[in-house]
Amino acid sequence: MSGAGDQGKALARWLGTGLLGLFLLPMSLSLEVSVGKATTIYAVNGTAILLPCTFSSCFGFENLHFWWSYNSSDMSKTLIDGIVKNEKVDPKVRLKDDDRITLEGTTREKMNNISIQLSNLDFSDTGKYTCHVKNPKERAEHNATVFLQVVDKLEEVDNTVTLIILAVVGGVIGLLIFVLLLKKFITFIIKKTQEKKKECLVSSSGNDNTENGLPGSKAEEKPPTKV
Ligand SMILES: *[C@@H]1O[C@H](CO)[C@@H](O)[C@H](O)[C@H]1NC(C)=O
Ligand SMILES: *[C@@H]1O[C@H](CO)[C@@H](O)[C@H](O)[C@H]1NC(C)=O
Ligand SMILES: *[C@@H]1O[C@H](CO)[C@@H](O)[C@H](O)[C@H]1NC(C)=O
Ligand SMILES: *[C@@H]1O[C@H](CO)[C@@H](O)[C@H](O)[C@H]1NC(C)=O
């Protein structure tokens, strides 16, 4: 009897854990913010740049709060701030710190894109840009940061580095192939030499009289096929 009771308890515990897991899972997966792969974006002064930000939400959202901050998590350094009512509408900007900032992208059709464009860039715009998203149902905000570096001209540094890396990798592969070929060649030579030596051994054993005269010259006169 007690066995069945224990089984019942175990089942209840198992179910409980499962349900708790199901309940916790959406909490941790509910929102994710991304600024893309690049951690640093380079842009030329005087031009405009898109600072990308997208978020994913598995379970939808309502009155989602988003904002971008500069160099700090301090709300007073907010560049732009807004609300997305639901998944069917575009975001509504509530306040904006600078006329050079425009909200790009769309939150319709699951795009969840709240990128901003910063135009007429100045060197003083260099710094950390953080995109924040907060679901009112959740306590924590979610954020992602990208570093903007304003330069007076874009250097081809990255390309050079890539080229160097490619050259080095190519060189190493080339060297490896060369070494392999060299090894094959050397093995071939050694094999040939050994074969020759064997031939010599065979021929000399076939012609004992070579020891008497000048080696080689005499052996040549008599073909070794006589054996
Ligand atoms: C960018 O800065 C450089 C150096 O200060 C300046 O010569 C150039 O005119 C600037 N370009 C623009 C488009 O403002
Ligand atoms: C990003 O979010 C984390 C967790 O809520 C927080 O600790 C951190 O201060 C935030 N970063 C910025 C720059 O606001
Ligand atoms: C977000 O929107 C901007 C402006 O339309 C676009 O350039 C960018 O590619 C979008 N990003 C993504 C990840 O769709
Ligand atoms: C923001 O941070 C960057 C790098 O950390 C710095 O160069 C820049 O001066 C800062 N800007 C302001 C206004 O504090």
Automatic annotation (TrEMBL):
Name the residues that span the membrane.
161-182
Question: Which InterPro entries does this one have?
Answer: Ig-like_dom, Ig-like_dom_sf, Ig-like_fold, Ig_sub, Ig_V-set, Myelin_P0-rel
One Pfam family recorded for the sequence: V-set
According to the UniProt record, where is the region Disordered?
A: 197-227
Compartment(s) where it occurs, according to its Swiss-Prot or TrEMBL record: Membrane
Report any one BP term from Gene Ontology: monoatomic ion transmembrane transport
Identify the stretch annotated as signal peptide in this record.
1-30
Keyword Disulfide bond carried by entry: yes
Respond yes or no to whether keyword Protein biosynthesis is given for this record: no
Query: Where are the compositionally biased (Basic and acidic residues) regions?
Result: 218-227
According to the entry, every stretch annotated as the Ig-like domain falls at 26-147
Q: Where is the composition biased (Polar residues)?
A: 202-212
GO annotation, cellular component aspect: voltage-gated sodium channel complex
Which Gene Ontology molecular function entries are recorded, alphabetically? sodium channel regulator activity; transmembrane transporter binding
Q: Which superkingdom?
A: Eukaryota
| Membrane association type | Single-pass type I membrane protein
For this UniProt record, the keywords arranged alphabetically read as follows: Disulfide bond, Glycoprotein, Immunoglobulin domain, Ion channel, Ion transport, Membrane, Signal, Transmembrane, Transmembrane helix, Transport
| PANTHER family on file | MYELIN P0 RELATED, SODIUM CHANNEL SUBUNIT BETA-4
**Protein name, entry field:** Sodium channel subunit beta-4
